[in-house]
Write a structure and sequence with these properties.
By secondary structure, this protein is of the alpha/beta class. It has two domains: 47 residues, no CATH class; 125 residues, Alpha/Beta hydrolase fold, catalytic domain (Rossmann fold), CATH 3.40.50. 40% of the residues lie in helices and 11% in strands. Helix 2 packs across helix 3.
């Protein structure tokens, strides 16, 4: 098994210029960079063509949703944890704790040009009838940063639009922790069980694709 970490524009690991190159009206760079990483892994034979599982949480969950819409054929499985997938509706609600402070990251959809750009990548907005890969969505009832209804409505719409090539091979699962927050289970062993669940799901998905 190979584990790869994608250092894509929009992250803070390479300084402010790198971050600025993947936020606001440059946000699409984040998604195309990630897709390029996936294509590289396959081209260089770090993984088999049908054995690439991707993972991201919170804003990284937005990344999962966006790249799944853009290139559903590239991924064997998608693990989205507490995913921020309903960008426009969430950023329109200024009563939520993160909205106003994150105008500098995503923009304010009350400004027309920001709204139009958000529409180009918002995972929920860009769902369409197409074959999606296997997807596991995990969230928590007490999450104060990404409200549970975001991934819940995303999953509901995905289930209505997904055209599975093989429903047994490409399941769409939704798992909600009724006693956790944004970081998942807080107890040491409960936290490890969640990680084990994610790994078991990922390995099962690639095993079915073999």
């Amino acid at each position: 098994m190979v584990y790869a970490l994608a250092h894509i524009r929009g992250g803070g690991d390479l300084g402010k210029k790198w971050h600025d190159a993947g936020r606001m009206k440059n946000k699409m760079n984040t998604f195309t960079d990630f897709i390029a990483c996936g294509e590289f892994l396959k081209h260089e034979k770090y993984c088999a063509p049908n054995r690439l599982v991707i993972q991201g949480g919170s804003a990284g969950g937005l990344l999962m949703g966006a790249v799944t819409n853009l290139r559903p054929d590239l991924w064997t499985g998608v693990l989205a944890q507490v995913p921020f997938v309903d960008v426009i509706n969430t950023m329109l609600d200024e009563s939520l704790p993160l909205t106003v402070g994150e105008f500098e990251e995503w923009g304010n959809p009350k400004i027309r040009e920001h709204y139009e750009y958000m529409k180009t990548y918002c995972p929920y907005t860009n769902l369409a009838p197409r074959p999606y890969p296997a997807i596991l969505v995990r969230t928590a009832l007490n999450d104060s940063q990404v409200m549970y209804w975001e991934p819940a409505k995303w999953v509901a719409r995905l289930r209505a639009l997904d055209i599975p090539l093989d429903a047994a091979r490409d399941p769409l699962l939704f798992k909600i922790n009724m006693a956790a927050g944004h970081g998942g289970a807080s107890g040491r062993y409960d936290f490890l069980r969640e990680i084990a669940f994610d790994y078991a799901w990922s390995l099962t998905v690639v095993g079915r694709a073999a």
